[in-house]
Amino acid sequence: MTMTLKKGDPTKCPGSKQKSKPCKKGSACKYTRGDWSSCDPVTNMKKRILSLRKGDPNTCEREKTLTKLCRSVCKYSRGDWSNCDPTTNQKTRTLTLRKGDPNSCEKEKIITKSCKRVCQYDKGDWSECDPNTKTKQRTLTLKDGSDASCPATKPQTRECKGENKDRCFFGAWGEFSECQNGVRKKQRELKFGGAECQKRAVKTKAC
């Protein structure tokens, strides 16, 4: 811009001066933004056109093209999980494309994961203690609704508790008898053991 002398000695001060400053970036050229195009499946790019809205057409570009990488939006419907494959212990499900560009999104995807088996069992009664092995057994039976890959039955074994002290082996306890002379008794069968074991085959309580 031109500055003209307003006050001062004209013999010492110049009558006019030129002053300049850099232009602010983008202040002279204003553009209208167009919509983004569809994603190009070859380049994975999309573009839009900027059209000159305000500014000197001699110094501003009349059109500008912007490009950017596509942000793929692929949304899928989830199918149900398959039954567990007992060989691989894996189950699968299929995802079907619900929303997104079929040129850049997979139409179907298959997901696999390890099975988390749900095995629930009904517990049978414990057998009587085996005097030879000092153990007793029971059988667990698979409940309805459990995973089909679970074993139908499972045997359980554990050491006898109480029955094998001093090599004594007993049967189940009977019921308490009627009260006689202020005492009630109950007994269990002694299957193996001596006189000391016989003492532990009888229980009494006051009545």
Automatic annotation (TrEMBL):
Biased composition (Basic and acidic residues): 1-10
Protein localization: Secreted
Residue span of region Disordered: 1-30
Keywords in alphabetical order: Disulfide bond, Secreted, Signal
Gene3D superfamilies given in the database record: Heparin-binding Growth Factor, Midkine, Chain A- C-terminal Domain
InterPro entries, sorted: PTN/MK_C_dom, PTN/MK_C_dom_sf, PTN/MK_diS_sf
Keyword Secreted: yes
GO MF entry, a single one: growth factor activity
Pfam families the UniProt entry points to: PTN_MK_C
Residue span(s) of domain Pleiotrophin/Midkine C-terminal: 26-71, 74-117, 118-165
Family according to the record: Belongs to the pleiotrophin family.
Name of the featured protein: Pleiotrophin/Midkine C-terminal domain-containing protein
